[in-house]
Structures are given as C-alpha cells and as structure tokens.
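Standup notes
- DV: blocked on the single-chain target, sequence here:
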Amino acid sequence: MRSALTRLGAAAAVAALLTSCSGGNGGGGAEEPQGLAAAEVCGGFAEDGAATTALKAVLGSGRFEDNYSKPDKALARLRDDAAAPWADSYQPQPVTYCGLVPAEGGPKNLKIEVNAVGEGPYLGSNLAPKVTSYTSGREAFASSGLGAVYFSCRLKAPAHEIVVETRIWGPAGIPDTDLEHRTRLITLANAAARHVADELGCAGTELAEGVPATARP
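- DV (later): unblocked, structure below
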C-alpha cells in the first residue's frame, strides 16, 4: 500500500512540474506578446507599411511600450493656438505627441513633439551641412539623432492658419554616416505630421505620402 501511495505521489509531482514548465497558460499555446504593435501606438500614426518598417528599425523591436505620450493634449494645444491671433510675446510650447520604448526594455527610445511655430525658414545655415533635406510640407530635414517636418495647416474660420512643427528624437549613438537612419526618422516624423493634420482637419499641408524623397544629399 505504501509503495502504491509513493508511486501516486511521484506521478503527481511530475504532473505539477510539467504544468509549471508549460507556462501555466492551460495548454493554450504561446503566451500573449508583450507591448503594442506598431499600428497600435500613439493613435495609429505608424500603421502604414513605411512607418511600421521605420519604427521597427529605429527601436530594434516589433513591440513597444508607451513613454509619456500625450496625443490628445498635443492636438488640443494646436487647436488653441489656431483659435486666436498670438500676442507678440506668446511662444507656443511643444507637447509630446508620442513617446515609445521597446517592450523588452533597453536603452533605445523615441519621442515625437508637435508645436505651432512662426514663419520660417527653420533650417539655419549652421545646421544645413549636417542634415539631409527632404521634400515634404514647407521644410523637412533629419540628422542621425533628430528630424523635423514643418507644414502649413489651414483650418476653417474663425481659426487662422498655423505652421506645425513635428520634431522627432531618435536613439543616441547612431553614426552620422548612417543615411538610411535619417530617412527612417523623417518617415516617422512625416507619418506623425500627416496623422496630426488629419486629426485637425488641416488643408494645404503638402505633406508627402510614405517615405519623403531626398531633396539634398
């Protein structure tokens, strides 16, 4: 009798061990993936193929975690800035439209800010030799660490036209010679700009679709 009980106890222990090794998901297969897909982040601005590919390459991951994104606040600030003429002393402040980190962790991060700005030009002569310019909106350019797209936004009266800056900061430590990385950053900034323009109902943006073309190597 004792021998039979011993065998039953051993069998139960083996069964418990196998259950724990299976991840405890009740035999339901693989665990649910962590984080968000590219199409789900920050209101879905990166759902098209070009932006999804760029986002995965920039952060080195296919799943992402939000990092203090405030898309609703960013859009509300732009609407407020378009609602009335600015005082001479008024300086609109940028708001983080989208902040992301890889779901699995690590040092990489990405931030996109939007802001209403005054008339350009926006690319100073001291910065021009260090960036690649692109054809989208009023101005678009990127370096290895940041990119920016400026576009006009005409709204229905009584709102007045504004210029929106969409600025992106990518991970640190990217070589200046990595020109493809610059294009990835501007692709994401442009995708965010298009999404913001759609949400606001902007007319006359002249924003490119997909990957903006290079204007100056």
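- Follow-up: The two ends are 85 Å apart (CA to CA).
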